[in-house]
Amino acid sequence: MYTLIASADVPTSVTIVFSLFLTGLILCLALEEKLHAKKSVIAGSFAVICLLAGAAYEILPFGEVGIPPVPATHEADDHATDHDEHASGHTVAMPVYIPAIDWGVIAIILGSSIFVDVTTKSGLFTWIAIKVTKASRGDPRRLLIFYGIMTVVFSAVLNNVTAMIIVGSLTVVSLERLGIREKLLGFLLIEGLLTNIGGLLTLISSVPNIIVGNAAGISFATFFIKSSPYVVVATAITLYLGARIFKIEALKDEEERTRAERQVMQFDENDGVTSWAFFRFSAVVLCLFIITIACTSVLPYVKDLGMGYVALSFAMVMLLRYRSTADQFYRAVDWDLLGFFMCLFAVIYVMEWAGVLTAIGNGMKQVLADPASATANARDVSTMLVGAAGFSSVTDNIPLAAMLANILEVELQTPSESKLWWSVIFGANLGGNITPIGSASTLVAVTIMHKQKLNMSFSAFIKAAGLFAIVQILLALAYVVLIL
């Protein structure tokens, strides 16, 4: 029932207007502290403006949404009439901003946050954190390496947001126990950056991987074989740079190591456990949660419901333990983060209908020399990768990846063996490390920093993460051009 014009028919002047809105949103987020406004308020204000402008320019798909008919049984067929609502389907009125929001992402953040908060009450995360801390023998750099590897693995088998929430919670406990809380900002920033590197490890590690991989016909095994060398090297370089920049140093002499080891061995991981029955229950449920999230795409019925359903379902299972006081966990939810994402999704949705994302894709299409060749030249590969990274740092990388994949597959008929596909994959993932709104996991990392009273504004993030992002993108360029 969509009767309005498609984004391809939107006048250029309208696209320019909405491009200015997007630029304004980015600038306001960069000046967040000077404006003394929360991210949700900034994004919400622009969502209101963009939706109103979209209605005024008549570019949004207003109208009723059709509900598919319910298959009738043979018995029901005998009694069906032309007016049978179940046989013919029906329509419902739905505000245009409802389908604009990626409710799967919202559900993952909400469900994972509640799940982690309730599980924390069992003492399980404290137990794990102290075990990891003991394994590091109190050496900060070794602890950084342990948590860095854990972040990459969790991001590969879970999703970036869940990985950041779990690892971030463990990191806070470990550093507070070691008495080096001043290193927390560096740890959390490095972990946030590593979530997007871990998202490159497998075909199912991130949504852009799935979209582009399916369009290019890249198998799971091929994806892992080609991406894993980069992930290993990029992880090692990121940990090395992080340790140097944030001065996370190894213990220097035997006396320091002996003292630190003696200190951590005094930690008792059992101190935080108030109920061993609930502890064991939480451990089992956590393992099931990780396995289910990792296997969501292949589980019958569950794959249709998605990861958001899994996260909310496990959150509800854990809430049964505190069923009479569950509201305490609802109050602890970061509603500012959820509000920001919902409003950001609405803004990006309007940008799609206003032709902004299409203009971005078409602009990249114009600068490619020979996209239909199986052996893309270095210039095309570099342009596509840097462009995808740049644009995914300020917009949602999912519609961007989908748009670029469609341009490569349909309009340019790019062969599956072309390196341009890998340029989009690497660019869409690594672009999330340029700004805190480039990916959900980096925004979650910044949110954890704010919860821990650590100062990290939009501009401060870009300044702190800039060198990491440049090195990672340059490494990706060299890898895709010279090795893949």
SSE layout and pairing:
Blueprint: H1 12-30, H2 32-35, H3 39-56, E1 64-67, H4 74-79, H5 85-88, E2 90-93, H6 103-120, H7 124-135, H8 140-157, H9 160-178, H10 184-198, H11 207-216, H12 220-245, H13 254-265, H14 276-295, H15 302-319, H16 327-331, H17 335-353, H18 356-367, H19 378-392, H20 397-411, H21 420-430, H22 440-451, H23 458-482
Antiparallel strand pairs: 1-2
Shape: globular
- Spell the H/E element sequence: HHHEHHEHHHHHHHHHHHHHHHHHH
Describe the largest sheet: 2 strands, antiparallel
Class of secondary structure makeup: mainly alpha
* N- and C-termini, Cα separation: 45 Å
Count of DSSP H/I helices? 23
Look at the structure and give the mean pLDDT: 83
Summed up, what is this model?
With 484 residues, this protein is mainly alpha-helical.
Observed structural traits:
single chain; 484 residues; mainly alpha; 2 domains; two-stranded antiparallel ribbon; 23 helices; globular; disordered N terminus
Can you describe what's shown?
With 484 residues, the chain is an all-alpha fold. Helices cover 69% and strands 2% of the residues. The protein contains 23 helices and two strands. Strands 1-2 form a two-stranded antiparallel sheet. The two termini are 45 Å apart.
